[in-house]
Amino acid sequence: MTLPQTMTLIEITEPGGPDVLKPRQEPVPSAGAGEVLIRVHAAGVNRPDVIQRAGKYPMKPGMSPIPGLEVAGEVVAIGAGVSEFIVGDKVCALTNGGGYAQYCVAPSSQTLPIPEGMDWVHAAAVPETYFTVWANLFDMGGASKGQRALIHGGTSGIGTTALMLCREFGVKAFATAGSEEKCAAIRQLGAEAINYRDQDFVQVIQEKTAGKGVNVILDIMGGSYFNQNVAALGMEGRLVMLGFLGGARANDVDLLGIMSKRATITGSLLRSRTREEKASIAEQLREYVWPVLSAGRCLPMIDKVYAYTDAAQAHARMEAGDHIGKIVLKVD
Fold first, then answer.
1. Which long-range contacts (CB under 8 A, 24 or more apart) does 193-201 make?
2. What confidence score (pLDDT) does residue 217 get?
3. Which of 111, 186, 192, 207 is placed for a possible disulfide with 93 were both Cys, Cβ 3.0 to 4.6 Å?
């Protein structure tokens, strides 16, 4: 396959607001050992992209400074040692950055075939979100059939994915949101909605579970919710932290509450996981989630699609907090 010499990508010209995202011409990258080169048709927009753009997400060595952690497209070249894909395969991939571009390299171990019947936009909304939810809610968090989960930010990409997978795998879900429109969307996904603006989520959880609490909490708020989360947990409950929109530090931590419930407090960043760890998550997704997606269930909820050259508008929408589901960039 003959490839162009150059491509257009979206770079972060300097730390700042959405307007620092600008198009730039750069040589098309080459697939290294264990990698595939993907002609990108769509790329997902995620909260880490926004944090990186603001200059608050340190980059690990070897990671691309170009934003974009998930893509969908066609394999146009393969690196040494890659045997599971061939040129022409339609794939989606968890990248190590670089997704806001016409071409992107990704480790083959983090690349998966697009589920049957799925279009580019929906496929691009899968990797980062489904990797994150599976690794944190079901693996680290141990959510399983018959248990109860609380999902904060229930209408985000992470939130909607978590709620759909909870419904699919028999986990009773509660979710917080800040408007009636968002609460309605949560209810449509089969979960109990809690409007945090006029409801105390701890009180609601205690009432709805007859004082038993939830088995696992997926939290994006961090410090501001810490003690409330501990109060909402049941015995031997797990609090899994994914973000710190409410602060990176918790004051006056309720240690007695943690000890009396034998609670587990943990968290993770997908970007900091090793290639081997990400490969393991990919294998689990292929085994447990890919059949569900191929059957047409638990498909990503798409909020809005932008041209990739309008990445600044996409970031502004994410920061405004009005989106329900995933924001995706379409690449011509």
1. 193/154, 201/150, 201/174, 201/176, 201/228, 201/232
2. 98
3. 111
Is this model's pTM higher than 0.70 or not?
yes
Do residues 232 and 212 lie in contact, with contact meaning Cβ atoms separated by under 8 Å? no
321 CB neighbour count, 10 Å cutoff:
13
In the prediction, which pLDDT does 270 show?
A: 87
Find, among 121, 177, 175, the residue nearest to 302 by Cα.
Answer: 121
Residues of the chain with CATH 3.40.50.720: 141-267
Instruction: Return the pLDDT at 240.
Output: 96
| Residue 284 near residue 292, CB atoms below 8 Å | no
Angle, vertex CA 256, rays to CA 254 and CA 260, nearest 5? 125
- Which residue spans of the chain are classified as CATH 3.90.180.10? 6-128+271-330
> What residues of the chain score a pLDDT lower than 70?
none
DSSP 216: E
Q: How far is CA 266 from the centre of its chain?
A: 17
Instruction: Please tell me whether residue 148 adopts helix, strand or coil conformation.
Output: strand
Class of domain 6-128+271-330: alpha beta
The hierarchical CATH code for the domain 141-267 is: 3.40.50.720
Q: Hunting for tokens 């396959």 — which residue is that?
A: 1
Host H or E run for residue 131 = helix 127-133
Query: How big is the CA angle at 68 (ends 66 and 70), to the nearest 5 degrees?
Result: 145
* Residues 6 or more apart in contact with residue 251 via CB below 8 angstroms: 223
